[in-house]
């Protein structure tokens, strides 16, 4: 049984002004923060008619032998908990609040509280013909999951052209056994947040904790191109690390992402570039740098300069 959708309270058109209506100096200072602009995006109910005033993804749970509802729910709870933590942590890395620490009900708190990931189960055993392949590494195939996602989006009867900036209709997340294991390694509790400059050890500890957690992200349009028989020489599904999931959702409405081909958002893994790829908004730049490093190392090794 699918649980009812959450109902989030409406937001004012300018949430930042509503927070500081009588303090123009504070308003001008705060309004430069990206988080207030992200919150203002959610204020437009027409932007997300499915879950107004909220954000998040459709998550497909790919069942496997030996899994359980309790195990999946525990991992998903940790995923949501840490994603909210990362959203809130943005305030401590923002230049505009370094000398003006925020109190309760900050814009980052409001964004974190409006997160909702809707889960659908996907059982590969229910498919008589199509097969979901989750191993070995590099041979994964989530095409049937993408087909189910396209069918779900079509059932919503939304104007996809007008909603091209809304990631909920264009990308879905997938949790298979491999991804689930990475989520299970997240601590069940998040530590208190601190300003990055005043506690670098804390920020490094946080980074090492959550940077190894990831899920799959599937691009609906790339998967549909594959279904139509187009020669798609890049994967419609990529791994996405926990720290970049917020960008996956909030960078799209700016127009920076939906104008890019999925290939341009595909980052080669630094060590396993032939089998592992990641979603990243700056994939083109990162790939250029890492390829130069690989070529330089290979050349030096051929010359006997580098032995490792």
Structure characterization notes:
This protein has 308 residues and is of the alpha/beta class. The protein has helices at residues 15-19, 24-30, 34-42, 69-89, 107-113, 143-156, 177-184, 200-210, 220-227, 245-250, 283-302, and strands spanning 58-62, 118-122, 171-175, 214-219, 237-241, 266-268, 277-279. It folds into 2 domains: 55-256, no CATH class; 260-308, no CATH class. The chain contains 11 helices and 7 strands. It is globular, with a radius of gyration of 21 Å.
Taking all residues together, what is the mean pLDDT? 87
Strand content: 5-15%
Q: Output the radius of gyration.
A: 21 Å
Task: Output the structural class.
Answer: alpha/beta
End-to-end separation in angstroms reads 54 Å
Number of strands: 7
Order of H and E elements: HHHEHHEHEHHEHEHEEH
Question: Taking strands numbered 1, 2, ... along the chain, how are they ordered across the largest sheet?
Answer: 2-1-3-4-5
Write the layout of secondary structure elements.
Blueprint: H1 15-19, H2 24-30, H3 34-42, E1 58-62, H4 69-89, H5 107-113, E2 118-122, H6 143-156, E3 171-175, H7 177-184, H8 200-210, E4 214-219, H9 220-227, E5 237-241, H10 245-250, E6 266-268, E7 277-279, H11 283-302
Salient structural properties:
alpha/beta, 2 domains, 11 helices, 308 residues, five-stranded mixed β-sheet, two-stranded antiparallel sheet, globular
How would you summarize what this structure contains?
The chain is an alpha/beta fold and 308 residues long. The chain is 38% helix and 10% strand.
């Amino acid at each position: 049984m699918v649980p009812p959708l959450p109902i989030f309270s409406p937001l004012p058109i300018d949430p930042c002004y509503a927070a500081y209506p009588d303090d123009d100096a504070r308003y001008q200072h705060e309004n430069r923060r990206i988080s207030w602009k992200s919150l203002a995006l959610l204020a437009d109910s027409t932007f997300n008619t499915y879950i107004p005033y909220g954000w998040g993804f459709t998550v497909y749970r790919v069942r496997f032998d030996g899994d359980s509802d309790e195990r999946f729910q525990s991992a998903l709870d940790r995923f949501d908990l840490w994603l909210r933590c990362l959203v809130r942590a943005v305030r401590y890395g923002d230049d505009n609040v370094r000398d003006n620490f925020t109190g309760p009900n900050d814009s980052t708190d409001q964004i974190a509280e409006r997160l909702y990931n809707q889960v659908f189960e996907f059982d590969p055993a229910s498919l008589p013909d199509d097969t979901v392949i989750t191993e070995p590494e590099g041979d994964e195939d989530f095409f049937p999951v993408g087909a189910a996602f396209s069918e779900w989006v079509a059932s919503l009867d939304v104007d996809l052209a007008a909603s091209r900036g809304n990631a909920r209709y264009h990308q879905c997340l997938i949790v298979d056994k491999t991804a689930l294991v990475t989520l299970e390694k997240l601590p069940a509790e998040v530590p208190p947040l601190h300003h990055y400059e005043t506690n670098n050890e804390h920020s490094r500890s946080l980074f090492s904790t959550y940077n190894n957690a990831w899920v799959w992200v599937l691009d609906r349009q790339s998967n549909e191109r594959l279904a139509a028989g187009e020669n798609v020489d890049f994967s419609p599904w990529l791994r996405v690390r926990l720290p970049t999931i917020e960008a996956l959702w909030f960078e799209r409405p700016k127009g920076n992402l939906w104008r890019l081909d999925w290939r341009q958002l595909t980052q080669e893994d630094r060590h396993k570039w032939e089998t592992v790829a990641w979603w990243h908004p700056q994939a083109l730049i990162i790939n250029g740098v890492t390829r130069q490093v690989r070529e330089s190392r290979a050349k030096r090794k051929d010359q006997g300069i580098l032995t490792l």
